Amino acid sequence: MNTNVFLENLKDVPLIFEAELSLYTTYRVGGVAEVLALPESEEQIKHLIDFTKKNKTPFRVLGLGSNILVSDLGLPGVTCCLRNFKNIKIDGNTVNASAGTALDEVVRQSINAGLAGLENLSGIPGSVGGAVFMNAGAFKAETFDKLISFTTITPKGEIKEFKKEDVKYEYRKVWGIDGCVILSATWILDKQDKEILKTRREEILQSRAAKQPLEYPSAGSVFKRPVGAYASKLIDECGLRGLSVGGAQVSTKHAGFIINYQNATAQDIYNLIKEVQKIVKEKTGFTLEPEQIFWGKFK
């Protein structure tokens, strides 16, 4: 890597060379990013995309680092972290948020404005961009329920707005946006008494704290819900609570979570995921599909 090339061409974008990705992922694991970019504007993001495409440099977009498992071997090229690209605008019952904004902060501010429709998403640890990209959800609610539109940079480098009705989406999947970088999302919500909404939010947060291992680094639910079953129930039925590989463990509090229990490596977590899949398939016949995304090389 020629550091000077990056510095000369991306001088308007905050850059960190040889950045420890364990500081930017909720699992608290992962190797070094060759270049970590922390853009603060749409223009900087577009500049990054244009530069990496022109120079055929590997390029990835990272939100708040949840739902991602990054290899111990790190990532080549540019990892574009959007945590500084954040903004929320509320106008009447319309809420618009930039991609790097914490989804939970959007929920909180919407509730404070007396707007209903996102409260069941309270406590989800990801960014707006990540939530839109995978239609994140919890407590029988999904990101797309009240979504109206979202704006992206397409693989061709064009800024494009997608209307909800023009996109095919389902449980944890949105079709036709692979390769797009999400810039912002817009929801239209319903007016409601903010005290009622605050009470509902508190119920959700308390339920998460009671049932999920929030005291340990994790990346949320590891597996998608298989048709006709629940991943955590299957894992439980197979007696896998507490199963460990290295410093990674199937949570004893919630079998759908894998936690960084004791200085785990990314490879420990990866191996444990594979072991859980293998045992559940052998004992129940169900194939557990990871909800989480694997970046980099694993053994």
Question: Layout of SSEs?
Answer:
Layout: H1 3-9, E1 15-20, E2 32-37, H2 42-54, E3 59-62, E4 68-70, E5 75-81, E6 88-91, E7 94-98, H3 103-112, E8 115-116, H4 128-134, E9 137-138, E10 141-142, E11 147-153, E12 159-163, E13 169-170, E14 173-174, E15 181-188, E16 190-191, H5 194-211, E17 218-221, H6 231-237, E18 244-245, E19 248-250, E20 257-260, H7 266-284, E21 293-295
Parallel strand pairs: 2-5, 3-5, 4-21
Antiparallel strand pairs: 1-2, 6-7, 7-15, 8-16, 9-10, 11-12, 11-15, 13-14, 17-20, 18-19, 19-20
Verbal overview:
There is one protein chain. The chain is α+β, with helices and mostly antiparallel strands. The chain has three domains: 3-81, Uridine Diphospho-n-acetylenolpyruvylglucosamine Reductase, domain 2 (2-Layer Sandwich); 88-197, Uridine Diphospho-n-acetylenolpyruvylglucosamine Reductase, domain 3 (2-Layer Sandwich); 213-295, UDP-N-acetylenolpyruvoylglucosamine reductase, C-terminal domain (Uridine Diphospho-n-acetylenolpyruvylglucosamine Reductase, domain 1). The protein is built from seven helices and 21 strands. The chain has helices spanning 3-9, 42-54, 103-112, 128-134, 194-211, 231-237, 266-284, and strands at residues 15-20, 32-37, 59-62, 68-70, 75-81, 88-91, 94-98, 115-116, 137-138, 141-142, 147-153, 159-163, 169-170, 173-174, 181-188, 190-191, 218-221, 244-245, 248-250, 257-260, 293-295. The strands form seven sheets. The protein has a five-stranded antiparallel β-sheet, covered by helices on one side. It is globular. The mean pLDDT is 96.
